[in-house]
Amino acid sequence: PARDPVAVRALRRVMKRGEVGTRPGRHFGLGLDAYAQATSPIRRYQDLVTGRQIAAALAGERPPYDEEAMQRVAAVTDRADAEARRAEREVERYWLLRWLERHAGVPLEGTVVEAGPRPVVLLDVPLLEVTVPSLAGAAAGDRVRLEAVRVNPRADLATLAPIEL
Question: What number of other Cβ atoms are within 10 A of residue 123's Cβ?
Fold first, then answer.
């Protein structure tokens, strides 16, 4: 199937992150009334705690963590997860900008994924979203050809300019 970067960006913007709570909740996408998520217990403490709670329930035992302890675990681990996600995004963007810096002056193609007052372009290679103010007037979905004029990965800066298709 063809990929529509404008639709993908719009969908990403309306999707909510999962909520961390102490009780199973409804999962709209799966149509389940109760849902809990856990991955590898060696990866996240929150998943170890969830696994322990589920194992105790399946064994007919009393859960090892009460409501208050679960709330503390959820609060601490949710903050740590948010910080880890932020750091991961920053590192990924830094390396994408390093790639872009090495390809300054090379024609790059992309799609305008947001027209707004500050147009955003998703570059085909690398898959990097960049704000390109000089494309004011472009419409979402427009294909554009750009070149990197100035890139400073440490400052999270990328200045791209349009070139003729």
Answer: 21
DSSP β-bridge partners for residue 129: 122
Nearest to 45 by CA among 84, 87, 15: 84
- The model's pLDDT over 103-112, given as tens digits with 9 standing for 90+, comes to 998 999 999 9
Find out whether 131 and 112 touch, Cβ atoms under 8 Å.
no
Instruction: State whether the Cα torsion 65-71-77-78 is positive or negative.
Output: positive
- Phi and psi angles of residue 42, each rounded to the nearest 5 degrees, phi first: -85, -10
- Residue 52, CA distances (Å) to 32, 57, 58, 63 in order: 22, 9, 10, 8
Question: Left (φ > 0), alpha (ψ -120 to 50) or beta: where does 141 sit?
Answer: left
Q: Residue 18 pLDDT more than 90? A: no
pLDDT band at 165 (very low <50, low <70, confident <90, very high): low
What is the 8-class DSSP label of residue 154?
G
